Amino acid sequence: MDRSRRNFCLGAGAATVGAATLAAVPADAGAVTATDDAAHRWAMVVDVRKCVGCQACTIACIMENDVPENSFRTIVSTYEVTEQGKAGSYMLPRLCNHCEDPPCIPVCPTGATYQRRDGIVVVDNSVCVGCAYCVQACPYDARFINHETQTADKCTFCVHRVEAGLLPACVETCVGGARIFGDLKDPDSTVSKLVREQNPKVLKPEMGTQPRVFYIGLDPKMQGKVDGTRTLWRPAPQAGKEHA
Question: What global pTM score does this model have?
């Protein structure tokens, strides 16, 4: 049993789980919750040093959540990086950040996008009118309009699995153990310990959204990166490689 699965099962019971000058995560990040009296505050830590860009997480998410073709709830963006004359690839796993202060919520005219007491941001497809205001408001390019349902879509931390005591599909299938999911309200969870001890970073900290997806080993040049060359079955034609 890997560390993330073990932490999920033991740390929270039947339905519980866990380089240079980037802006650091606030010291009290692990203690902040969407609703102070909620039982859990779910979060994810991504160790980019362990990501091999295999896209197993992307495929698992598509299969688990019936994501339509050419859309993604999570994906590993890849970048070509050149340093000292040598070229290499950089992998950046991306998904909804389930922010403490989500900018997607106040712009929703129908209340379809909302935050659960446990911090997970979800979309009520029965209320969403597909206006895409939330898509435009998200600074992490983590939302899209599902062309089959014509409503907003995004990562939900596989909330249906979490409620059943399971890990999100992307965490379950990560071959390198790069994704760790857990409860910030449990001080003994692996996620809480990593946030306290590893000084993880977040994407676009200047936006003030207080993301609850943290990154270990994040290169400072990647702090603002929210796009990249897709490396699934059919790369976009004439897609240029980015230089960080």
Answer: 0.80
